[in-house]
């Protein structure tokens, strides 16, 4: 399949996805919070030059440093979010409802990454853009009034993959910069937690093997979508065992030393990715990590992104609230009702 044909298919599916997001955000009340501001930043990691957008969702208490009076304002935790879409479709605004829940439940600033997409930008560009975003936020933390030592990552599906692969790749990049004496004025923060919703974590298994691993598997069949994802992102064919592609297969020392000690993993009962997600949950626990979250009963892959119109989505709201409450605890914020409703 030619790259041009893959791109045309991706553009078609992106159009469908954009329509779905519009229906979810604008025709399915209550509406999520709008983007507070955005920044376009350069890619500084890897060998593919370019730039991409960061979308900021902020609580009512947020002020940037150049707007501060003489009285300092408390610094805000960071949640760096990665949208789903098989690395080929999707947009940083897709997860506005999740961002809204987090800024309502905590004092955090949610930064959603509009990383560059396949097939124009295949693996590992999305991973490297994620690292570029983290390093940018840490470098500009004083201006943005962010607490780099309370950094967390989150993501959905392929974005859930990026929660882990970006963290691994960050450590590799920091080692390189240190060895080459190029860290400059970048202060090194800490990824203290991660929230992954129905993540893809093992690319060594075929689509058929994944489906067969869950007898309850159900899903929406979009002809040509999976082949577009596989051929678009995995070009040229990479090492499927790489921790930057299959983070659940990383060596023990990487899982133990580089992933945060407090995580949330939400998986779906009818998802082809259920088995690999639950295996990874078990491995993380065996490593001594705390893993909150649960299997969402009856849910298919991407269940939380479908327009609900007048019906609402109680299961989505419950899962988002549960994950946000875990983040609040991980960040050391008391549940004292001081977060301002919007």
TrEMBL record:
One of its GO terms (molecular function) is hydrolase activity. Pfam families: Abhydrolase_3. Keywords: Hydrolase, Signal. It comes from the Eukaryota. The keyword Signal applies. The keyword Signal applies. This is Alpha/beta hydrolase fold-3 domain-containing protein. The lineage of its organism: Eukaryota, Fungi, Dikarya, Ascomycota, Pezizomycotina.
């Amino acid at each position: 399949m030619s790259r041009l044909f893959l791109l045309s298919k991706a553009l078609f599916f992106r159009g469908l996805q954009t329509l779905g997001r519009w229906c979810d955000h604008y025709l399915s009340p209550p509406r999520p919070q709008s983007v507070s501001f955005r920044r376009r930043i350069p890619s500084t990691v890897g060998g593919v030059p370019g730039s991409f957008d960061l979308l900021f969702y902020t609580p009512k208490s947020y002020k940037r440093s150049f707007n501060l009076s003489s009285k300092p304002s408390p610094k805000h935790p960071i949640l760096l979010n990665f949208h789903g879409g098989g690395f080929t479709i999707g947009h940083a605004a897709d997860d506005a409802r999740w961002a809204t829940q987090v800024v309502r439940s905590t004092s955090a600033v949610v930064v959603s990454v509009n990383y560059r997409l396949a097939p124009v930008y295949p693996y590992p560009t999305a991973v490297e853009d994620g690292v570029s975003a983290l390093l940018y936020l840490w470098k500009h933390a004083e201006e943005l009034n962010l607490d780099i030592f309370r950094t967390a990552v989150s993501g959905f599906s392929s974005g859930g993959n990026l929660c882990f692969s970006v963290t691994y790749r960050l450590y590799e990049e920091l080692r390189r910069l240190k060895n080459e004496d190029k860290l400059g004025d970048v202060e090194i923060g800490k990824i203290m937690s991660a929230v992954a919703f129905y993540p893809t974590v093992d690319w060594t298994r075929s689509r058929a093997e994944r489906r067969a691993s869950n007898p309850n598997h159900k899903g929406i069949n979009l002809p040509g979508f999976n082949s577009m994802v596989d051929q678009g992102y995995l070009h040229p064919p990479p090492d499927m065992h790489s921790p930057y592609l299959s983070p659940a297969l990383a060596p023990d020392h990487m899982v133990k030393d580089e992933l945060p000690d407090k995580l949330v993993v939400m998986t779906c009962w009818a998802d082809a990715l259920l088995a690999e997600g639950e295996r990874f949950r078990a491995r993380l626990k065996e490593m001594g990590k705390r893993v909150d979250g649960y299997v969402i009963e009856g849910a298919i892959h991407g269940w939380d992104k479908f327009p609900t119109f007048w019906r609402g989505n109680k299961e989505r709201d419950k899962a988002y609230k549960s994950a946000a409450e875990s983040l609040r605890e991980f960040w050391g914020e008391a549940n004292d009702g001081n977060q301002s409703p919007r």
